[in-house]
Amino acid sequence: MSPELKRSSENYEQKKEQIKEAAKDFIAYYGYHKTTLDDIANKVGIKKNSIYYYFKSKEDLFNEIIIEIYAAKITDYEKASLKSKSTIDKIKTFLLTIVSQKYKESKQYKITPGAFIEIGRIIEESYKELFENTRLLLSTIIREGISTGEFRKHDAEETAKIILEFTQALEFFEYSKTTSKFITESEQKKLEERLVNFIDLIYTGIQNVK
User: Which positions fall inside the HTH tetR-type domain (predicted)?
Assistant: First the structure.
């Protein structure tokens, strides 16, 4: 690749990343539906039509953001799980990574409760494949516990489905009550504590008592 083409490629990726970061800020504050391409373009300092050089549509931009964050969370889990000493610890690590406001290990985004709930519903309705992938990953972890004898034999897929549905319901319940402008660290911590307590209850039902 010539130096000119390399610079052009680097500039393209840098501008694309700027657009995504601006979109994240607006969506996290206003929600998906109230965020416009005009808002994003103004923040980046380009014309609205220029965004179409990088993304086909607002939906395409949102899709890339969601997939990127999801992939980063899975990578974070894989790294964190190396420190887990048991399968139940892996389950807790997996769920805490999924609900965390952080991704790429340290990058954190501030999000309003209303935007969080709206985005969650959009993902539930339009990104069923992501939920299915998450369920499959969790059921794989549970089956690992069954194979090692940590858990008794049971329907791992059904347990994974129940855990994820409860996790989603808990997020919506906790964040719908908040009066803060953004989801706070203490609210996030409370959610995580309740989630861990729930997993401990699940564990008492599926552990292999010898």
Answer: 13-73
CA–CA separation, 110 and 62 (whole Å): 17
What's domain 57-206's superfamily in CATH?
Tetracycline Repressor, domain 2 (1.10.357.10)
151 bridge partner residues: 207
Domain boundaries, the chain: 1-55, 57-206
The confidence score (pLDDT) of residue 19 equals: 96
Give the pLDDT confidence of 41-64 residue by residue, as tens digits: 999 999 999 999 999 999 999 999
Tokens in use for 86?
């048991």
Residue type (1 letter), 135: R
- Cα first-last separation, the chain: 63
Q: What is the pTM of this model?
A: 0.86
Strands 102-103, 107-108: pairing is antiparallel
CA dist 159 and 205 (Å) reads: 11
Question: Which is higher by pLDDT, 65 or 208?
Answer: 65
DSSP calls for 29-40: HH-TTT--HHHH
pLDDT digits (tens, 9 = 90+) for 113-154: 899 889 988 888 888 888 899 999 999 999 999 999 999 999
Which residues are 107's β-sheet partners? 103
Q: Report the CATH number of the 1-55 domain.
A: 1.10.10.60
Report residue 103: phi and psi, to 5°: -150, 165
> What are the Cα distances from residue 32, in Å, to 1, 14, 18, 62, 66?
38, 23, 18, 8, 12
